[in-house]
Amino acid sequence: MGLQMDAAELAKFLDQVFPQVRGEFLVEALEEEKILMRLCVQDKHLRPGGTVSGPSMFALADCAAYAMTLARIGEQALAVTTGCSMDFMRKPAAGSDLLATCSLLKLGRTLAVCDILIHSVGMQAPVARASMTYSIPPNRSV
């Protein structure tokens, strides 16, 4: 099936359907089964101690899986998260953006399964890992 949206089309669509986070999540690179997304870390993403909060890392993983799914199925705003497992492995670097590498493991008629690895810019070791499952709306061609 291949990509149904390129990086620019995907970014535009995300801005339209989620204007409340415009500019926070950026598509850095897009391939047929992989996407690289950036969380532009701001003060609102930090918890006491100056580290990026768990909910912000979850949002990045979720957004990356959503974007990867949409890139393959097209403009289906009602694709929704149905499952998530997330491991927080180490403290993110202070004052650095986060990068999520999301790999599409399976794309079926009703579900998409993704694996996401999150790094702080400038850190080699991952700070978090997630597995996300998305439900795909009915009435789309495969």
UniProtKB/TrEMBL annotation:
Signal peptide: none annotated. It comes from the Bacteria. GO terms for molecular function: acyl-CoA hydrolase activity. SUPFAM superfamilies: Thioesterase/thiol ester dehydrase-isomerase. Keywords: Hydrolase. Residues 49-122 form the Thioesterase domain. NCBIfam families: unchar_dom_1 (TIGR00369). This is Hotdog fold thioesterase. It comes from Parasedimentitalea huanghaiensis.
